[in-house]
Structures are given as structure tokens and as C-alpha cells.
Design a protein that fits this description.
The complex is a heterodimer of chains A (about 450) and B (about 110). Chain A is α+β, with helices and mostly antiparallel strands. Chain A is built from 20 helices and 13 strands. Chain A has three domains: about 130 residues, no CATH class; about 190 residues, no CATH class; about 45 residues, no CATH class. In chain A, the strands form four sheets. In chain A, strands 7, 8, 9, 10, 11, 12 and 13 form a seven-stranded mixed β-sheet that branches. In chain A, helix 16 packs antiparallel against helix 17. Chain A is globular, with a radius of gyration of 25 Å. In chain A, about 35% of the residues are buried. With about 110 residues, chain B is an alpha+beta fold. Chain B has a domain of about 80 residues: OB fold (Dihydrolipoamide Acetyltransferase, E2P), CATH 2.40.50.140. Chain B has a five-stranded antiparallel β-sheet. In chain B, a hairpin with a 7-residue loop joins strand 1 and strand 2. Chain B is globular, with a radius of gyration of 20 Å. The chains are: A alpha+beta (about 450), B alpha+beta (about 110). The interface between A and B is medium-sized, with 24 and 18 residues.
Chain lengths: ~450, ~110
């Protein structure tokens, strides 16, 4: 009986293992026979999907945003048009193009919208039949995509086109997006591998990856709209949200003491004790690389190499020229304590308005002239006298709080002492507690008996 | 006699230090930035690749062995190709320079 139960549970486990018996995507013989012709091939079985995709953040790089200060609720915001200091450029001012030649006489293609899943002729936010036909379905859905094909080039009319792999081989390897599909773009955002968010999604760095889960197991798409969390710096959203309690519920622990914490402490606070990625960047001074091109000076750390800061957060965001970060307090009844990756970026500010200016990366990438980049961006945005704006621009720092929602751990999660010890990671005073409360919160009386019992169990 | 013993002890201590230090040196990671001039990958299911990097500082050609799956996958689907600039760390094991960190310097 025991043996048959074991066999049955093993079979169930195998069936549940991602990809263990991955079903072949229907329509294989048709694709083999006709070849892959782009979205029209997909639409034979999935009608309307290309048009549907054009309405998502992945295509528009923007959406209306209702939880961030100082934004126009009628406008859309995102990579398309935001100005901040992790990127400082955006799709508009730093559009994909061939940059001027550097001192070695070399040029290259670069731009913020390099990752956009179109062909650049039909670019960020474009609509209509041509845009639908330009969607690069396979870059997200194929495991055999040949990235040699996805390179920018100039067509006969001198227009910059982003190539795509539309081979039958790639089309025959389609399915639900894998971690690789997502990370192809998301791991290199912000100017390099693990620079922006600083997390890798591998079995060594994330408890969910260790279970064989993939990105879209949590970020479960609905009609190509992808649910996201409330990262204070990630504004654009598809109006769908994801959170830990969607799977784990509000009482995820065996311990009632731990479960009591979930009302005020976000899951991430204990289960994501480390962060990573860029700590600081200077867009006013670019460094020359070995290839003769310049890049913003960047102080980088790897995944799990830095520690977060903790703050109350009610999912609304303070957005000012020198600060982007969480709003909330101990007493507003909506906030929880969350961990954040803190980052500081230096860039140019407008001398008259004090607002942060954006940058076209083409000039500084070629010759390090960052003010020329500011001038070009000001011209693209239609600002009055771009040369004067760039000349008078004032360097300054902006602090940004990034959400810390990956690098999840169970085995290395914070326990009672990590927070309630006198040298714990939470600064209770800074979080709004009185001296008397801090004394109580950091007294072993709170956790001593519980941890002694746990110690006995462990040894 | 005491003096001779002291000399022997000093020599032994020195030898132990040298052994310890050489051990540390072997385990040390070397860091470099280089441009890929060649990638040798034995087929789709290859578990190892040999990459030649041209050191941007010294222009020396350095042969690196890559074994981690994530990087191998990037060679296989050509997300990393000849001409890419790489930030690399490696350890020397059995005379081979084994990659412990292999990332493109450029981003979006």
C-alpha cells in the first residue's frame, strides 16, 4: 500500500514538474508545411492576439498611473517618456539609432527601445495592421530564437530596422515564456547585466526558481497583460497586480506569532533579506570602455551583495525631482514595512525650473560629451533654446527606492532576532516607534522562549 | 643547539607560509575585461565552451573555459557573440582558466 502510494505521488510530482511532459504545441505540421510568416501564422489559431498585444505595457512602454505624485492622470507614463536617473534617457529622446562615430571611427546602434518587441519601423505604442504584423511573437515564446537575427540594421531607405528571427525552426519551439525569454530583456535593463533590479532568477538565488517555477507562474498573463507588484519605481502597469498572498494566503506560517506579523510586515521584508544591482550611477561623467565607446560611470553590485532599506509603504509614491520612493506611515492603517533597494543617480537638472533633464545617449556614447546629450534631448522635446538649457544645466543627485520582490528565500529568511535583537536590521525609531516601544521591541522577552524551543528542535 | 632549533622552526614556518600563500593564490580569482575573438562550443548539448578574450588593457589573448549553464545558453542562442566585450573572473584549475563570472559589459 505504502509502495503504491509512493509510486502514485512520484507520478503526480513528475506530471507537475514543469516541462517534464511538455505537450507539443498544436499546429506543428502546419507550420512545418507552410513555414512561419510572423503573427499571421500565430493568428490562424489565436485570432486577435496581435492587436490585443498592442494595448499592453510591453508594446506601449507606458500606461496611466494613479498612485504616483505629480503626474497627469490623463497621460500615460513609462519607459516611453519617463525621466529619472536609473536610465536618464527614454524611448523618445534616446530612440534606437546609429550613433556618431567615436575617436576610432566606429559607430554602433543603440537606444532605449532596443528591447521593444516590434521592428522599430512599428515602434513603441504604434497601432494598426502594420504594427500587428510587426510583433515579434517568437522573442517571448520560442526557446530556439536565434539572437543573431535580432540586430538593428539600416534598410535601403536608410531607416533603422530591428531584425527578428522568423525562422520555422524558432516557430517550432514555441510555448509559454521561459525564464530565459523574460530575462533576455529584463536582466540587462538599466545599462548592463543585473544593473537595474539586481536579481537573478536561478535555483541558487530564488526559492521559487529552485522549485522549478518560471516568471509567468507568478506573473500570470491575462490576454497578454502581465500582473506586476507595486514597485515605487515601476509605474507603468497593465492594471493587473500580483502579490505573495495570491498563492500563500494571509496566514502562510505554521507559527501564529509569525502570522501575526503579516498585518504590518510585508512578506518580502523577512523573505528577501538581500538586494543587488547598481548602487549609484553618474550620467554627468561617462567612462570610456575598451571598445572605444563611453558608458555612464556605474557602481555595480551583484545579486545578493547589498542589504535593503526598510520603510512603511502604502503603495503610493512620492515623486519629486530629487526623490522617488514610498509613501506611508505606521499610523495610516494601509502601510506595511517593506524592503527596498536604494539607489542614487547623478544627472543634469534644469537651472531655471529645477526639474530633472533627460539625455540622448548618442553624443556621450561616441565622445563622452554629456551636455551634448542633454542638448539633443531638449531639442527632441521641443524645449526653448536647447543649447542654453544644456550649458546652464546643473548636476545633482536623485534617490530612488526600488521594490525588492525577487531573490526570495525560505532557509535564510529573517527570524525574530534578526529584527528584534538590539542590533537588528529594522531601525524601529526611524520607523516611528517611541523610545519606550523600541525598548520593548528589542527585549528578548518577546522571542526568547519560542527560539529556545526551536533551538531544541534543531539540535 | 637552541639556535639550530630556532632556525629549523623559522624555516618550517616560512615554508608553511609559502605553501599557504601559494594555495591562496591558486584559489584567487583573476578579473579582466576583454573582447571575444573566438567561441568554441561543441554542439547544442555542449556542457563546456572555450572562449578567447582579448584583454582590453594588455591586448593579450586569454583562453577561458566556461561551464555554467546560463552562459552556455547565451552562446547557443547567440545572445553572446564574437566582438562582445565581457567582464570576466576566472580561477586557474589544472592549468585551465575556469570562468566564475562571465557577463557582457553593455546593457540595453
Amino acid at each position: 500500500m505504502r509502495r503504491s502510494a509512493a509510486v502514485a505521488s512520484a507520478l503526480v510530482a513528475l506530471l507537475q514538474a514543469p516541462g517534464a511532459f511538455a505537450a507539443e504545441h498544436p499546429g506543428r505540421s502546419q507550420i512545418e508545411k507552410d513555414g512561419y510568416k510572423g503573427p499571421s501564422t500565430c493568428e490562424e489559431c489565436h485570432p486577435g492576439k496581435a492587436k490585443e498585444f498592442l494595448g499592453t505595457v510591453h508594446w506601449k512602454h507606458a500606461s496611466k498611473v494613479d498612485n504616483v505624485d505629480n503626474l497627469d492622470p490623463k497621460q500615460e507614463y513609462g519607459m516611453k517618456n519617463r525621466i529619472y536617473t536609473m536610465c536618464n534617457g527614454n524611448d523618445i529622446v534616446n530612440n534606437l539609432k546609429e550613433i556618431p562615430k567615436n575617436a576610432d571611427g566606429k559607430s554602433k546602434f543603440t537606444g532605449c527601445n532596443t528591447c521593444h518587441p516590434g521592428n522599430h519601423l512599428n515602434d513603441v505604442g504604434s497601432t494598426g495592421p502594420e504594427a500587428e504584423a510587426a510583433v515579434d511573437c517568437l522573442v517571448c515564446h520560442s526557446t530556439e530564437y536565434d539572437f543573431r537575427q535580432r540586430k538593428p540594421y539600416k534598410d535601403e531607405q536608410g531607416r533603422v530596422v530591428m531584425g527578428q528571427d522568423r525562422s520555422t525552426k524558432a516557430a517550432l519551439a514555441i510555448g509559454k515564456p521561459t525564464v530565459k525569454n523574460c530575462m533576455t530583456c529584463h536582466e540587462t535593463a538599466g545599462g548592463g547585466v543585473l544593473v537595474k533590479r539586481g536579481f537573478s532568477f536561478t535555483k541558487d538565488t530564488d526559492a521559487h526558481a529552485a522549485k522549478g517555477m518560471v516568471c509567468v507562474d507568478c506573473h500570470q498573463a491575462k490576454d497578454h497583460r502581465i500582473p506586476t507588484g507595486f514597485d515605487p519605481n515601476n509605474w507603468a502597469n497593465d492594471d493587473l497586480r500580483v502579490s505573495c498572498d495570491g498563492c500563500h494566503g494571509e496566514k502562510p506560517h505554521k507559527s501564529a506569532d509569525y502570522n501575526r506579523h503579516t498585518a504590518k510586515i510585508a512578506c518580502q521584508t523577512c523573505h528577501i533579506p538581500r538586494t543587488g544591482g547598481a548602487v549609484a550611477k553618474d550620467f554627468t561623467v561617462w567612462e570610456k570602455g575598451g571598445d572605444g565607446f563611453y558608458e555612464p560611470t556605474t557602481l555595480k553590485k551583484d545579486a545578493n551583495e547589498t542589504v535593503p532599506v526598510y520603510a512603511w509603504y502604502n503603495h503610493t509614491v512620492r515623486n519629486e525631482p530629487h526623490f522617488i520612493g514610498p509613501k506611508g506611515s505606521r499610523k495610516d492603517g494601509k502601510s506595511k514595512i517593506y524592503p527596498f533597494k536604494i539607489y542614487m543617480g547623478k544627472a543634469f537638472y534644469d537651472a531655471k525650473s529645477g526639474k530633472l533633464l533627460s539625455m540622448d545617449f548618442a553624443p556621450p556614447m561616441a565622445n563622452g560629451d554629456t551636455r551634448a546629450g542633454v542638448e539633443s534631448a531638449a531639442r527632441t522635446l521641443g524645449m526653448k533654446d536647447p543649447a542654453a538649457v544644456a550649458k546652464a544645466a546643473v548636476p545633482g543627485w536623485q534617490t530612488i527606492y526600488f521594490g525588492s520582490n525577487h531573490l526570495v528565500t525560505k532557509s535564510k529568511a529573517l527570524n525574530c532576532v534578526n529584527c528584534h535583537g538590539v542590533n537588528g536590521v529594522l531601525d524601529f525609531r526611524d520607523l516611528g516607534y517611541s523610545a519606550a516601544e523600541v525598548k520593548k521591541l528589542t527585549n528578548p522577552e518577546l522571542y526568547f522562549k519560542q527560539l529556545i524551543e526551536k533551538q531544541k528542535e534543531e539540535w | 643547539m637552541k639556535k639550530a632549533l630556532a632556525v629549523v622552526v623559522a624555516v618550517v614556518q616560512l615554508a608553511m607560509c609559502l605553501v599557504a600563500l601559494s594555495g591562496v593564490a591558486r584559489a584567487d580569482e583573476t578579473k579582466m575585461v576583454g573582447v571575444i575573438t573566438k567561441i568554441d562550443l561543441a554542439g547544442k548539448d555542449a556542457k563546456t565552451a572555450t572562449v578567447v578574450l582579448k584583454d582590453v588593457k594588455t591586448e593579450e589573448l586569454v583562453e577561458i573555459v566556461v561551464e555554467d549553464d546560463l552562459t552556455l545558453d547565451k552562446f547557443k542562442d547567440h545572445r553572446i557573440v564574437d566582438g562582445d566585450e565581457i567582464r570576466c573572473k576566472y580561477e586557474v584549475k589544472d592549468g585551465k582558466k575556469l570562468s566564475t563570472y562571465f557577463r557582457k559589459t553593455a546593457g540595453c
